[in-house]
Design brief:
Blueprint: H1 2-10, E1 13-20, E2 25-34, E3 44-52, E4 56-57, H2 60-68, E5 74-77, E6 93-98, E7 100-101, E8 108-117, E9 128-134, E10 137-142, E11 152-154, E12 172-174, E13 177-178, E14 182-188, H3 195-220
Parallel strand pairs: 1-13
Antiparallel strand pairs: 1-2, 2-8, 3-6, 3-10, 4-8, 5-6, 7-8, 9-14, 10-12, 11-12
Length: about 220
């Protein structure tokens, strides 16, 4: 009976992850409800740690602008990202997304982050590539409250609490229940059988535009 009660208590932490919008440019929305810390989660810093597969990336320049205006707090590992690389030349990205308290719920936290799909190789049949995003790990640092010892374990995360530039604090990984096991990003891709047509159209467009530029230079240019 004691084991069953502990498992029930630990499973009260619920995580929901959604990919909003359509196409290559999305918003990653993460919501967490921490029932395991009691009725009030005040004094707790909450973060979501997740691995982005090569098919998804975060634009560091866009992120810097958002953080400058205090619209989001994120740690990227690595912090240098090639935003032009296609999916087959990219690597995984680890993000630590700091979450804000939800004013409508004392035990709820949420955060949103813009993410972008990378270009994929042309496919044989399907016009979409599927990028699977696993559910994040929930990290908690509570200064005033304590989680049940059966529900958390120390996490190997060297990061400050709440995204502030202070020394790292002790984060704990919380056992939680997933609303969805994973999210799927559908990225449009080209078809291999269209390669010849694309090459011909690209070549003709390049020749036409180059000819128009050359004609304009010859007509209106001033040569000494």
């Amino acid at each position: 009976c004691a084991i069953s009660d502990v498992q029930a208590a630990c499973q009260d932490a619920i995580v929901t992850q959604e990919l909003l919008k359509e196409g290559f440019h999305r918003d990653l929305l993460v919501k967490v409800e921490l029932s395991a810390v009691g009725e009030d989660a005040g004094g707790c810093a909450v973060a979501a740690r997740t691995h982005l597969p090569p098919g998804i990336y975060v634009d560091p320049y866009e992120l810097a602008s958002l953080q400058q205006h205090n619209l989001t707090k994120v740690v990227l590992i690595p912090d240098v990202i090639d935003v032009e690389a296609p999916e087959y030349l990219a690597t995984n990205l680890l993000i630590l997304l700091y979450m804000e308290p939800d004013p409508r719920c004392s035990r709820c936290f949420r955060a949103a982050l813009p993410v972008h799909g990378r270009y994929h190789r042309p496919a044989e049949e399907s016009e979409e590539a599927l990028v699977v995003l696993k559910s994040p790990e929930v990290l908690v640092c509570c200064c005033e409250n304590r989680l049940s010892a059966e529900c958390w374990k120390p996490a190997e995360v060297e990061a400050p609490c709440s995204g502030q530039n202070v020394g790292p604090c002790q984060w704990y990984s919380v056992t939680h229940k997933l609303a969805y096991e994973e999210s799927i990003l559908q990225v449009p891709v080209g078809l291999r059988q269209h390669s010849s047509l694309v090459c011909v159209v690209t070549l003709l467009t390049t020749v036409l535009c180059s000819s128009m530029i050359l004609a304009a230079v010859c007509k209106y240019g001033h040569f000494s």
